[in-house]
Design brief:
The chain has one domain: Rossmann fold, CATH 3.40.50.300. It is about 25% helix and about 30% strand. The protein is built from 6 helices and 10 strands. The strands form 2 sheets. An 8-stranded mixed sheet has the order 5-4-6-7-3-8-9-10. A two-stranded antiparallel ribbon has the order 1-2.
Length: about 200
């Protein structure tokens, strides 16, 4: 796919709304579907709550389904907490594995899931990144890759159409912690303070 066709593809993508007006406005209607998105979500900053807010909306939609892939021995998934944030657990599946592309390869040849979230994967090869992006486009699902560090616009995975950071911002007057969201690739650079607390 050359640069022109990649731009045309990006412009034609449908959007996945979060159902949270401020987030959907910030992302100009929502996150793009059928593509690969990287999230910079440092541990302890609460950025994964933003991701889960999106998953809650997706899991409530007709046909919406999610696969969350995590590395064994790292963060443990606690489904009741997700349910408390509006996630329909009947539409979500969890898989723990080290080698995402090799172990779950059949998943990427189907449109069974609307979104596949890969939480802090070990290093993937350029061929594996290209495979994920190609399969997402061909089978009309999204791949969201969560990183435990902040992303930059000039460095990183060339196959990610969007890069979004969600980092903790402490309010000096109240002492509360919120999420500072920023888009570093995919839209014009922008920042916002998400009004929902990000203490977890």
């Amino acid at each position: 796919m050359n640069a022109l066709s990649m731009l045309q593809h990006s412009a034609s993508l449908s959007r996945v709304a979060s159902g949270i007006p401020s987030l959907d406005l910030f992302f100009e209607g929502g996150l793009p579907s059928e593509t690969l998105i990287e999230w910079g979500v440092p541990l302890g900053g609460g950025g994964r709550r933003v991701v889960i807010s999106y998953l809650a909306s997706i899991s409530q939609q007709v046909g919406g389904s999610v696969l969350w892939v995590y590395r064994p021995g790292e963060l443990q998934v606690y489904p009741p907490a997700w349910q408390a944030q509006g996630v329909n657990l009947e539409r979500v599946r969890f898989a723990g594995c080290e080698n995402v592309v090799a172990d779950l390869r059949p998943v990427f040849f189907d449109s069974l899931f609307s979104v596949v979230v890969i939480d802090n994967p070990k290093a993937l090869s350029m061929d594996e990144w290209a495979f994920l992006a190609r399969q997402a486009r061909q089978h009309k699902f999204s791949v969201w890759v969560l990183r435990n560090y902040l992303l930059r616009s000039e460095l990183g995975n060339v196959w990610a159409r969007w890069r979004v950071n969600a980092e903790p911002v402490r309010q000096p007057r109240t002492g509360t912690q919120q999420c500072g969201l920023s888009v570093v690739r995919g839209l014009s650079p922008r920042k916002m303070l998400w009004e929902a607390s990000c203490n977890t």
